[in-house]
Amino acid sequence: MKKSGKIFSKAFLLLMMVFFYMPIVYTVIFSFNSKRSLTRWSGFSLQWYERMLSDDTMMSALGTTITIAILATAISTVIGTITAIGLSKSNKILKSIVERINDFPIMNPEIVTAIGLLMFFSALGVQKGYLTMLAAHVMFCTPYVMLSVGPKLRSLDPNIADAALDLGATPWQALIKVIIPQIMPGVISGALIAFTMSFDDFIISYFVTGNGVSNISILVYTMSKRINPSINALSTVIIFIITVALVIINVLPLLKSKKQKGVKE
Predict the structure, then answer these.
(1) How many CB atoms lie under 10 A from the CB of residue 91?
(2) What is the pLDDT of residues 63-98, one digit of tens each?
(3) Which whole-number Å values give the CA distances from 240 to 198, 245, 246, in the listed order?
(4) In a 3-state reduction of DSSP, which class is residue 102?
(5) In terms of Cα–Cα distance, which of 188, 216, 212 is closest to 200?
(6) Rg, C-alpha atoms of the chain
(7) Is residue 19 in a domain?
(8) Are 70 and 87 in contact (CB under 8 A)?
(9) Engineering a disulfide at 190: which of 8, 148, 155, 173 sits with its beta carbon 3.0 to 4.6 angstroms away?
(10) Total domain count for the chain?
(11) pTM of the model
(12) How far apart (Å, rounded) are the C-alpha atoms in residues 225 and 245?
């Protein structure tokens, strides 16, 4: 029974891997198809990549997506990390209130958040466009950073900052050289989640954008009713960028740890 159970679990795991990754493989393969067909292979070609690069609308959407994701990640990571550090030194009542408020953007359905932001910007008379999309992305990314950094802060020695101050460090030095390095794994995890959430968002972006500003999700939605293999090429480029980023993020710490071990030996 145990042997058959192991075989079943491995087979189930294999099926799940195929289920999750086959669409990605399919997209990459057909981005090199010589014909417009998305179901029949006709030969190898790079024409869809050439069309993608020559399509100003697609390149503009890609640039908007990348810049919004980078800026939103940087801003939300700074805000979320500083807020989490501040909350760790606050009283329990204030901490509990802020943590409950922080859960609202995560628990709320995206459509509710999107409509709320749309009404908020409209009430203020703000012209919707790049800045409103950036502000919205910072808003819904920050809670994820706080949730990621919080557990790391709770695992720290509560007296570590006071010890650094007693040894002559300024408050800024204690923050940058003592606290931040200790919680860096949580900061990096929060930043990665924020980048992914921003890069992938459609619903909120669709409601808060305007003046011809669109990201990849909005562009794909507008082009979904007609066959355009250039979308496959664009998706393949995005998959490649994300894969390279994940490899770098996971490999660099391993190389650093091996280097440190070699120095100690």
Answers:
(1) 8
(2) 899 899 999 999 999 999 999 888 887 888 888 888
(3) 18, 9, 10
(4) helix
(5) 216
(6) 23
(7) no
(8) no
(9) 148
(10) 1
(11) 0.81
(12) 31
- Residue labelled with tokens 């919707």: 128
Q: How far apart are CA 139 and CA 13, in angstroms?
A: 36
d(CA 118, CA 133): 10
3-class secondary-structure state, position 130: helix
User: What phi and psi, each to the nearest 5 degrees, are found at residue 44?
Assistant: -80, 135
Residues of the chain with pLDDT under 50: 1
* Cα 90-164-158 angle, rounded to 5 deg: 35
- Domain annotation covers residue 12: no
Which residue segment(s) compose the domain that 57 sits in? 44-245
Task: Round the average pLDDT of the chain to a whole number and report it.
Answer: 84
Query: What CATH number does the domain containing 79 carry?
Result: 1.10.3720.10
pLDDT, residue 236, reads 86
What stretches of the chain show up as alpha helix (H) in DSSP? 2-30, 47-54, 56-88, 92-107, 110-124, 130-154, 160-166, 171-173, 180-200, 203-208, 216-223, 230-264
* 202 within a domain of the structure (yes/no): yes
Phi first, then psi: give them for residue 33, nearest 5 degrees.
Answer: -70, 140
| 257 Ramachandran zone, left/alpha/beta (phi>0; psi -120 to 50) | alpha
Say how far apart CA 131 and CA 137 lie, in whole Å: 10
Q: Using alpha carbons, list the distances in angstroms from residue 138 to 99, 118, 165.
A: 17, 15, 32
